Amino acid sequence: MAQQAGYSPSFKRPADIMRMRRKRSLSDAGQGSTSSPGQSDSLPAAAAAGVRPFSPGPLFSSQPRSGRKRRNPFANIENTYSPQKKCLVYDDEAADTSYKVKTWRDKEGDEDMSTETRGGLTLSARLTEAEQQGHVSSKKRLFSGDDSLFEEEEEEEEVKTPLLKSPQAIAPASISPPVCSEYPADWSLKTRLLFTSPLTLSWAEHPKAQEEAAGLSQHCRAHFLSLPHSLQDPRVCSELRCAFQQSLVYWQHPSLPWISLFPRINADRNFTGKSTPWAQDRALQQSLMTEWSVSLSSLYSLLKARLCPYFYLCSYQLTVLFRAAGLGGSSSITAFISPTTRGLREAMKAEGIEFSLPLVEKRSKEQHKLNKETEFCELKDSEDSPAADDDEDGDDEDGSFSWLKEMGVEDKIKKPDSISIQLRKEGQTVCVDHRPESLVCVDGSHTFTLINFLMSCKSLVAAAGSQAGLPPTLLAPCAFRGATMQTLKARSVNVKSQVGSTFHDISSLEITGPILPSSLHAITTLLRPAQKGNFSAALYTHTPTAVMNSDPPTATRSTHTPTAVMNPHTPTLQQSPVGSVDLSGCGLHPAALQQLQQTSGLGKTALTHINMNNYSYTWKN
Questions:
Q1: Which residues pair with 322 in a beta bridge?
Q2: pTM, 2 dp
Q3: H or E segment and range at residue 295
Q4: Cα gap 528→541, rounded to integer Å
Q5: CB contact at 8 A, 264 and 471
Q6: 146-150, 405-409, 471-475: segment of lowest average pLDDT
Q7: DSSP letter at 235?
Q8: With contact defined as beta carbons under 8 Å apart, do 324 and 187 qualify?
Q9: Which residue(s) pair with 251 in the sheet?
Q10: End-to-end CA, the chain
Q11: 335: helix, strand or coil
């Protein structure tokens, strides 16, 4: 080893070092803190050379020392002084860090060395990650000498400065949540919308005459304006106000100005005290039904030609939704009826209308799957009793009353008739009447038969009560024969909301009326740039229509079905892939059309809240 100032010219054995340390500790205890002659000689040399002593620490020339600093007997030139290393400041008064060294024995067997606790010094300055790694690696090199017999114990030093986390650990904090630019399609009818926003919503009411006329004209021509991503002042944007008036338009038949014809279910109080001249006039009732049948036939023709995307039929006891092919994930025309009764379903069967109960079938499949799992677990037990299976297979359709004959009382007991047996077998279906599970789905060419059935169904019109003789209400987003153009009512109010101990100004917009799915999408699309991507909405659903978000049966979503083969003369009703259905002429905005083409996924529930924060949607159902 080269001779340098401040370094020992030779390396001593550890046994000699420990023997000298014991003597030094005894002399320090008796004499107090005194400096040894050897150390006093080395101080000037170290200060002159400007290097550290053997033990890592500050330079002797940088600050005065009150006591004598012991040297490190295991230090060498590489890990003690290097021009490339940064100068580190140490704190002598900090708590010592203990390093344990395993018991070792000298080669010549002089003596045993017990576990030693070596006082260390902690960092007082915050180190970078590279400096910390260099500091730890330099400590490990203390035990890497060729003549040393030490074995380092695997014990990591806790670094007080924060370290970088792994990519998996920092992913949730560093990656922003995905932006949801759309909410799921909701096929239920809404009776009221309440929008709130920190920015003003007063631009949505009191349009100018020119703006209202432009909005109605754009609706009739199916012309849609493109708005910028964000508007500085919506109150001076004429295009926004025209588009808002366009989104409020819907078409209705019949239209009676003095009576609100939506909703119709459980809405008798809306007709109480109103003038109903058709209630006792048979000729007037017949005239109303004739005009209503013409309007319904016109709507279905537009639906087949894909010029009308959907329409609703609202009666006093049920609601029907007709959807064009390509909407809701279905490749054919579909119709949902809710709620229904066993009598209505039997009448539809009598007319040859094939239908399905999606929610009942779904529940039956789940129950059947559960039963299959139970039967699989009890398979061995069932195999041991084949006679019981033969008896079950031999049961007659009358409900297996053979035990009455065995008792000799078969003549005294009256057996149930076939109608009672059928009711017992269909008990699960009968119990869903007037409930969401009674939803009926009709698809394909059977929707045309359903239209004829509705035109001639006497139970579709109330025979008594405040709605007696009044045809059902037809609602559509586009014009049809005999329809009247109507607009939703919008009202803006500024209120104060208490948040903690302070009050904040909040603007609200209330929209009432029969709000169609496309109208809801158009309104939220306009609020996005007008409110700079921050608003919330409370949605009030017409309860009987919430279940219409259910998925259609699997057969209606297939590309090739027997219906398409059995009806070669009705090309408009043949099923085709959903993506190949052209609905560009139905009069809806392309964004709204794209949303309604997807499967809803809400099941038998409907959206109740929509919230947009920083142009990202969240919702509740």
A1: 311, 335
A2: 0.64
A3: helix 282-304
A4: 22
A5: no
A6: 146-150
A7: G
A8: no
A9: 476, 485
A10: 80
A11: strand
